Amino acid sequence: MFTLLNVAGISKDHINSRRDLGQMGIRISLHPNVVNEKTVIMPSCFTLNKDEKYLFLKVLKDVKVPNGYASNISRCVNLHDRSILGLKSHDTHVIMQQLFPLAIRRILPKNVVKPLIELCNFFRQLYSKVNRVTDLEYMQDQISITLCHLEKIFPPSFFDIMEYLPIYLVEEAILAGPVQFRWMYRIAR
Q1: Angle 3-157-112 (CA atoms, 0-180°, nearest 5)?
Q2: Measured between alpha carbons, how far is 82 from 9 in angstroms, rounded to an integer?
Q3: Which residues face 35 on adjacent strands?
Q4: Which among 35, 62, 112, 141 could disulfide-bond with 108, CB atoms 3.0 to 4.6 Å apart, if both were Cys?
Q5: Using CA atoms, how far apart are residues 181 and 112, in angstroms rounded to an integer?
Q6: What is the pTM of this model?
Q7: CB neighbours (10 Å) of residue 50?
Q8: SS3 for 84?
């Protein structure tokens, strides 16, 4: 989410990642350009401009959720600075599973939206109360394809061990059962 919003210090799309693309000789359109002795990076297909950031954050600001479902997410959204601060881990899960697909659907290009929505649907299905082993095995096959689509969109610096974790989460769900019985949210509250 912070890479889409291009938040300084948190985003994984920065000058060093663009230089890496140049050294690898891939994605020529994303290579940094030198203009008047300054290095300039062109916006990528997944980076939101000011108006798109406003629309994305406006969806999160205006959302109303049932009492006890999540904290007041609108308090964490600052439309003036176009930023999100102070989200708890459960709020991030709610955004990822429910709100993120709604917020990005009309803002980003379809080739970017499709794998991101597939990723959100994967987490929603993984965290559902009832999962069959056959469904989980199908999800395990699909998540690797979704991650491959994401690798075509985002720079290589975006991918560290956390981005490949969903593959192992399915295997853990097959072995240990539904995820909500292993969550720490109830204990933390």
Answers
A1: 50
A2: 15
A3: 38
A4: 112
A5: 33
A6: 0.86
A7: 8
A8: strand
